[in-house]
Amino acid sequence: MATPTTESAAAETSATSLTGRGRSILATRPLLGWRTVDILTIAFLGAALGIAFWGWGVFYSGPLSAITFGFAPLGGLFAGPWFLAGVVGGLVVRRPGAALFCEVTAALVSMIPGTEWGATTLVSGIVQGLGTELAFALLGYRAFGIAAAVLAGALAGPFAAFYESFTWIQDWSMAWKVAYAGVLALSGAVVAGVGGWLLTKALAAAGALNAFPPGQEHRENRAV
Amino acid sequence: MASDVASREIGAGGGDGAGLTRARTTGGHVTLTGVTWRPFGRREPVLRDVSVSLLPGERVLLVGPSGSGKSTLLRAIAGLLETADAGELKGSVTIDGHIPGSRAGEVGLVLQEPGAGVVASSVGRDVAFGLENLGMPRAAMPADVTTALAAVGLDKSHDTPTSALSGGETQRLALAGALALQPSVLLLDEPTAMLDPGHAAQVRASVKGALTAYPITSVVVEHVLGPWVDLVDRMLVLDDDGRLVADGPVRHVLEQERQRLLDMGIWVPGAPSPSPVMPAALRAGTPGQRASSQDIEATALTIDRTVRLVDGSTRTRTAAALESGLSPQPGSATSLVGPSGSGKSTVLLGLAGALTPATGEVLAKDRPVADLSTSELAAHVGWVPQWSSSTIIGRTVLDEVLVASRALGQETPERVVEAHALLTSLGLAHLEGADPRELSGGEQRRLAIASAILHRPPLLLADEPTVGQDRHTWAAVVGLLDAYRDAGGAVVVSTHDAALIERSDDVVELSPPTQAPAVDQPRRVLAANAGPLALLLGALVAIPAGIIPGHWRTSVVVLAVQVVLAVVALWAGRGPGPRPRGRLKRVALRMVPGLIGALSVGWSTWLLGGNDLTTAFTAALRVLIIVLPSAVLLPLVDPDRLGDHLAQRLRMPARPVVALAAALQRVHTFGEVWSEISLARRVRGLGVDTRRPVALVKHLATVTFGLLVRTLRMAADLAVAMDARGFASASRRTWFAAAPWRWPDTLVVLGALVPIAVALLAGP
């Protein structure tokens, strides 16, 4: 929006390119000054991933439940994709609330056509989004590398398990609940964390994130 | 109730000077001083030291070769350079002495792609978008909307769905949306480049009418100059480097700079059509080994297209009708012509087997073309989509050309040599190692054609191959098509380019198919009278209702109550219109995954919760109690109204809610994008193979990725269009549509609370 912010972005860009690897390019300041393109990108990314969620849900409740039926906590291994929207949203826009907004949008869009869990899909989205958001907040919205992505994906897991302990897994023994949380965290770390980080990189390489820090990182790395 | 809401909003949103700024209708004075813009990651600036002053009310035509920064200059004037891109900006832009965009809607902008700037699901809402951002009271909006629609001659009711408009009507809608804000500067970015001649003329007439009614400063970017010359006074010319090289009265510049303009590839009025440049590679190469037999033919047919809406329902309409058979002959070119909406692209998709005809058939040697395997299809057909950028597969240009050959196992050294030769003759040789996604639009179009024909399928299908091309790329594209035909290929293009139609051997005229008479709207079910929030709340309240019962006996009672409530909610009442059909089936279908979930939860609870059958049964019933209301109520949620209710009832922040609503109303287009990307892969031998799970997963992942890329581009374009209408500063906006809470809402929520009460009372 305002011109001055991009100058600081430019300064920031060159600063990070000087300091080399390991530092993330951050969103333009002020951090809470969401640009229109930030908001729209999160909404559209969420909507597209929501449709993907819906497709994954059909597979999850169909063929996949035949596999995981024998031992439910294993099903948690396949829950990672649900946390993807939050991680990618956070990695792309890098502002407080991006991860939560993206995950909730995706949950909402996947809920409307009908899923196995009905309206609770939305609640799951909020809870998982909070877990992911917490990770980025703990890092002060300053780190958006693969480690941050893994942490964000992993934290969605315990949040999801905590919420589900009131609904779907209410009567499991405590030990199993904890084990389930661990499995979710693992799946989240690998699928949503590493996967989300790779997806963001690929989107940047495809030139789809030019207005965002990952797009700038891609250009900086290529320029070297 | 409605007036109550309106008056409250005057208090909340008024007082930002909207009335004051709306008084002006004169043009703004635009001054650019030394504007240089370099996007990050590019070595060279896109605009270099551009200084120009546009006087109030002046009408300016801005021309230049592709990639010369014309659109960028428009964005600079609008103050939107950094809306969807990041870079380094030097120099200054002012309008009447201040930074552009200090007043919302001061600079109106119409984008090239029809629909790129559509914000809302209905015509009225879309035009009112800028007024909402200004915080105008709701009661005042309809009059302004009607005035703006009249100014562009768009005679549509406010509740016409935006998705029902043609491309030309959509462009006029965008114009109306800009005019509603009484801009002092109007910028039009190739507003007719993607339209057929009839619609293009309508848009120009609208622009002319609007500029007569509002004498504002205006800048039009176009590379077909003829029709605009009488509409403008002044002409600016940008060169390849983004420098301003000519400026003056339009006829004077046209005369003085004629040769330079022709060299740039601009369609100068009166100049003869360029002569197609035949690529040597195809002429001299091994012409169509397999192109001797005519392969694919269509009988008379109709094709239906089904749109999947966000709420899971579908809408089917007849999209194309071919009145007589079509059998593309080797060595001939056929043009499919007709106004937009006549189904030209749909027929091409049918010929490529991506859509199955509702009546008639498309056969490849006696087999339906849709039954061909992906490699068989690749061997039969080449397809050039209208959007070549989102169907790119290869990592380098050379890679991209060789995709189909590789999938067919024909990546021989000779083929690679041919690929080099083809790229050389298309002027793409120096880009062989480049990422194809970074090519210009014209380069991507040539690359797409080259990729479709290198493996020499007997039939080439090209969707609007010359749209938006300048003279040079036109000559290259047409030359390529000609050469392919001369080598024995059959070519079918959909087009409204007169020069291309003239060159074809056969012209097939399509007219918009007659639609089946609209079925009467069925009566509403009772719960459908409630708004989206009440329905959502009703579904969510089921969570406590499911959790409270501690024993399966209570659960059964609660579930029984829910079933009764569901019957009431889905009761259709009396009145006009037919009875709604398939209500039970829809609920049952939505409950199938829920039942699987219940079984799975019950079993896992038995296994991991102490092998107790009672607990397990209770847990399974809990799932059903939680999910049943969702299956009944959620299909009734109207996504188009969700945004209004979230913002006005729940007071959620306006901008994210608007973005969410805009995304929701685009979701139904995702299906089309998905099938286009799928076809682009299938027709190049990379289609889905259900027998190989790994390949299937890879295919799904790739297509999803393509969808994401396209979605992000939509978001970036829409951001520019929305900021041009004052969205950036719209923290306290008003709403075109009311979101009242009415008694059906209360009833739904009360009804949803009954199971909780039952659970509490029936419990131990």
Tell me the layout of helices and strands.
The complex is a heterodimer of chains A (224) and B (764).
Chain A: H1 3-19, H2 36-68, H3 72-75, H4 84-93, H5 98-111, H6 120-138, H7 146-164, H8 174-205, H9 213-223
Helix pairs in contact in A: 2-4, 2-5, 4-5, 4-6, 4-8, 5-6, 6-7, 7-8, 8-9
Chain B: H1 2-13, H2 18-21, E1 30-39, E2 47-54, E3 59-63, H3 70-78, E4 87-95, E5 107-110, H4 123-134, H5 141-151, H6 167-179, E6 185-189, H7 197-213, E7 217-221, E8 234-238, E9 244-249, H8 250-256, H9 258-264, H10 280-284, E10 296-298, E11 301-308, E12 314-322, E13 332-337, H11 344-351, E14 362-364, E15 367-368, H12 374-380, E16 381-384, H13 397-401, H14 403-407, H15 413-425, H16 441-453, E17 459-463, H17 471-486, E18 490-494, H18 498-503, E19 506-509, H19 532-540, H20 542-547, H21 552-569, H22 583-608, H23 613-633, H24 639-648, H25 654-664, H26 667-682, H27 693-723, H28 743-762
Parallel strand pairs in B: 3-7, 3-8, 5-6, 6-7, 13-18, 13-19, 16-17, 17-18
Antiparallel strand pairs in B: 1-2, 1-4, 8-9, 10-14, 11-12, 14-15
Helix pairs in contact in B: 4-5, 4-6, 5-6, 6-7, 16-17, 19-23, 19-28, 21-23, 21-28, 22-23, 24-25, 26-27
